[in-house]
Design goal:
Elements (H helix, E strand, L loop, with lengths): L1 E5 L6 H11 L3 E4 L7 H6 L1 H10 L4 E4 L13 H20 L3 E5 L13 H11 L2 E4 L2 H10 L6 E3 L15 H8 L6 E6 L8 H9 L6 E6 L5 H13 L3 E4 L8 H7 L2 E3 L9 H8 L4 E4 L12 E4 L4 H9 L3 H16 L3 H14 L2
Parallel strand pairs: 1-2, 1-3, 3-4, 4-5, 5-6, 7-8, 7-10, 8-9, 10-11, 11-12
Length: 355
C-alpha cells in the first residue's frame, strides 16, 4: 500500500499514526505541491494526483480540508471556487483509480471554509472509499449531515505520551511558572478561537470568589477582539496567567503538570486532541456534557450541563488530594490504553479490507 497524506500539518498526529504503519511496510508520503503560491498548489492538485498515481500511489488520505481556502479572499465567489476545486480533486482521486480515505477529525470546519461546508463535507464523506472518525459522536454528526456511506468506522485518537518532554513534578512546575503550590489551578490550552468558549470561562472564573485558585490561558489567538478581551480580564484579576502565543514543545510539561484540570468549555466539538494531550500528562479535564466527550472515562472528567461551568469549577476546588490523585491516575490510564501500534493496525486493516 502506498499512501499520499494530505495536508501535511504541524499536528504530530499524522506522524504518530504513520510511523508504525511504515514499520509494517506501508509507504507514506505527503502530497506537497510545487514551491510557490498557495493558490497554484491547489490548482495543480488534479495533475499532482495523476503524477503520483503513475508512481504507484493507490490511496489519498485526506485529514483536513482547510488548504483549499484562498488566502486572499474569503468572499462567496472565492469560497464557491474552492468548494468546486475541492470536489473536483476528490472526484479526480477516484477517477484515476486511487482509493479516497477521509479521517474526519472535524465533521465540519470550525470556521466557514466553503460556500456550503455541510454540502462539501457530505460530498466528501459519501464519495470516499473509507471514512474514519474518532468517536461514536463524530460518526453521528456525519450521519446528521447526510453522510450515508456504510464504509465508516471509529478508530480512536492516540495519546501523546513521550511526544513532548515530561520529567518535572507538580511542585517544580508551579515554582517554574510562579504559581502557588496550594492553589487549584485550571488550564485552558490550545489555539484560541471563539467557539472554544474562553470568554465564558473568563466570566465564570472572574465570579469565583476564591483566592486559592488560578487560571492559565495558554495558546495563540488570531482574533484581535478576543485577544483584547482576554487581556482586559488579565489586567483586573491577578489569578489569571496569560500567554497569548504558541507554547513551545519543551514548555508544555510545565503548564500541564502544574494544572489540576484542563478546562474545555467548547460550544461545539467533534474531536478534542487537547483532551488526549492533557490525559497524557495525567491531567483530568472539565468538559461540557456533549456527545464529543462521552467516550472519555467518567473518572477522569468533571462533566457539566449547559450553564453549569461555574458549579464544575467549584466542584474541582473542593476535591481532596486523594480524589485529585485518583482522577489524575485515571487520566493517565486512559492515555496509556490509546497506543499508536494498535491504532496503526486498526487503520491498515480498515484501509485494506474495510473492516
Amino acid at each position: 500500500m502506498k499512501i499520499l497524506a494530505f495536508p501535511r500539518d504541524a499536528n504530530p498526529y499524522q506522524e504518530l499514526l504513520y510511523a508504525p504503519m511504515r514499520r509494517r511496510g506501508v509507504i507514506v508520503e505527503y502530497l506537497d505541491g510545487p514551491t510557490g503560491s498557495h493558490t497554484l498548489n491547489m490548482l495543480m492538485m488534479p495533475w499532482l494526483l495523476i503524477g503520483k498515481r503513475l508512481q504507484g500511489f493507490d490511496v489519498l488520505h485526506v485529514h483536513w480540508t482547510y488548504p483549499f481556502q484562498l488566502p486572499f479572499s474569503k468572499g462567496a465567489v472565492a469560497r464557491a471556487c474552492m468548494e468546486a476545486l475541492a470536489s473536483a480533486t476528490w472526484l479526480m482521486t477516484r477517477l484515476v483509480g486511487m482509493k479516497l480515505v477521509w479521517t474526519a477529525h472535524n465533521a465540519r470546519p470550525h470556521e466557514p471554509l466553503f460556500l456550503d461546508d455541510r454540502r462539501a463535507h457530505r460530498f466528501l464523506g459519501n464519495l470516499a472509499d473509507r471514512v474514519i472518525v474518532h468517536s461514536a459522536a463524530a460518526l453521528q454528526q456525519l450521519r446528521e449531515m447526510g453522510v450515508r456511506n456504510d464504509r465508516c468506522t471509529v478508530i480512536a485518537h492516540g495519546n501523546y505520551i513521550g511526544v513532548y518532554p515530561d520529567g518535572i513534578s507538580r511542585l517544580a512546575a508551579r515554582r517554574h511558572l510562579g504559581l502557588p503550590a496550594d492553589a487549584t489551578i485550571f488550564l485552558f490550552f490550545g489555539l484560541i478561537r471563539p467557539y472554544k468558549g474562553v470568554e465564558q470561562l473568563l466570566r465564570v472564573f472572574s465570579e469565583l470568589q476564591d483566592a486559592k485558585v488560578a487560571l492559565i490561558i495558554a495558546g495563540k489567538v488570531q482574533d484581535y477582539h478576543l485577544a483584547k478581551t482576554i487581556e482586559t480580564f488579565a489586567i483586573t484579576d491577578d489569578r489569571l496567567h496569560v500567554t497569548l502565543d504558541r507554547i513551545a514543545d519543551d514548555q508544555l510539561q510545565f503548564i500541564f503538570r502544574a494544572a489540576d484540570f484542563t478546562v474545555l468549555p467548547y460550544e461545539k466539538s467533534t474531536t478534542s486532541g487537547v483532551s488526549l494531550l492533557s490525559a497524557s500528562y495525567a491531567c483530568p479535564i472539565i468538559a461540557p456534557g456533549q456527545a464529543a466527550f462521552a467516550d472519555i472515562p467518567k473518572d477522569m472528567q468533571i462533566s457539566y450541563a449547559a450553564g453549569g461551568l461555574a458549579d464544575a469549577l467549584r466542584q474541582a476546588t473542593h476535591l481532596s488530594d486523594k480524589e485529585q490523585k485518583v482522577m489524575s491516575a485515571a487520566a493517565r490510564r486512559y492515555a496509556e490504553d490509546l497506543g499508536w501500534d494498535n491504532i496503526a493496525d486498526q487503520t491498515v486493516a480498515f484501509l485494506e479490507t474495510g473492516k
